[in-house]
Amino acid sequence: MRKSLLVLLLWAMVAEAHVPAPATDIYPPHLQVLDSHTRKAIQRFLLHNRIVDTPHILDNAPYIVAAAAGRVLGGNGERIHARGVLNPAQPTYGIFRRGKVYTDPDSHELLGINADDIGTARFVVAGDVTTLAVQRVTQEVRPGDRLLAALPFAPLPELLAQSPADGVKGRIIDVPRGVTQIGVLDAVTLNKGRRDGLMEGHLLAVMKAGAIVRDPITGIAVKMPDERAGTLLVFRTYEKLSYGLVLNASRSLAVMDRFESPDQIQ
């Protein structure tokens, strides 16, 4: 099963992400499965999408009070004022707003909160009211928006395709870019994370639920078998959530589709 999975991965990446095929039919132990363009796309996604594990992280973060001279908070180059514990040694802060709250679709446990990216600001003058200068905005900055230390732009670790050591099952619970139909190279949010054994580089099979049909002879409703519909590569994990990239899909995927370790498929 593992060999066939690796062959499938190589085929998918050559077809969809332009990864050069290996010179041998033996899967290299340290193959980098994503090409530079796809890795850069993932890096850009991570710069604009951030999850916090608990509400307290945002609730206790420094916050924006007003813009300079009381103007409506706006765009690039504006001076803004903030309160809270800000570190002058941290030159750049990300501006975030509380976004979607993720809960487990089965247990209803709080899994994390999406911190919506509003922009970035650089440190100018420290004080009880600190002054910062807006560097980048995705939308209008508002009083009450929170400041979090910007994550450094660092190369992604080498992503090695492998199945999870322990069987894992879960669901796709969101598509951060806001679409309903999911296709190849779309990023998705998964309801499992590090505590469940997921790590960067894990491969997961996406399963579509079989349709319910009526038996033409007995008239009884019968569920058709679930079918494999795609493959995900986990590229960022949090405590209870993960981001995955769709490597291939035989049909449109959707929120609430299942995923599981490929080794679990019979």
TrEMBL record:
InterPro entries cross-referenced by the UniProt entry: Bact_Kbp
Signal sequence extent: 1-17
Keyword match Signal: yes
Keyword tags: Signal
Name this protein carries in UniProt: Peptidoglycan-binding protein
